[in-house]
Amino acid sequence: MKKFLEEFKEFINRGNVMDLAVAVVIGAAFTAIVNSVVSDLIMPIVSGLTGGLDFSNMKLIIPLGAGESAIAYGNFINAVIQFLIIAFVVFLIVKALNKAKDLSAKGKHKEEKEAPKCPYCLEEVAEGATRCPHCTAELPEPAKATVK
């Protein structure tokens, strides 16, 4: 039992388990935000465009002997519409975040220099070197780094 608990402790202390736990918590909070955007901002617009049509009351009544049963296909239609809207909103958010990340990366991008190489043996030499440490050839001019 002691070994089992130690293995469990090791499992919990792994970085990826903690990352997953944080992702689940943030995902739950993000879900609340996206649901609010859809139900409070976008669905009223959709309702206005459809003339206030409410799918939730749509059902197919099936008479069964002594009673009735209903297939509430309107709730399914609402769920599909909300899913499509949520998927589209998440797509827009991810697209905006990726664009912001790309713009941020461009601002931080520095010119990368390629190390100078000996013209004879093509091995890397230190910048400013006048002789190759590999083939000992004398370089025509001090080695200079080139921009990629």
Automatic annotation (TrEMBL):
Name of the gene this protein is made from: mscL
Record-annotated membrane-spanning stretches: 20-50, 70-94
Topology term for the membrane: Multi-pass membrane protein
Record's subunit section: Homopentamer.
Record carries keyword Aminoacyl-tRNA synthetase: no
Highest taxon, organism lineage: Bacteria
Name of the protein described by the UniProt record: Large-conductance mechanosensitive channel
Record family assignment: Belongs to the MscL family.
Major localization class: membrane
InterPro entries, per the entry: Mechanosensitive_channel_CS (IPR019823), MS_channel (IPR001185), MSC/AndL (IPR037673), MscL_channel (IPR036019)
Coiled-coil residue spans: none
Subcellular compartments: Cell membrane
UniProt entry keywords in alphabetical sequence: Cell membrane, Ion channel, Ion transport, Membrane, Transmembrane, Transmembrane helix, Transport
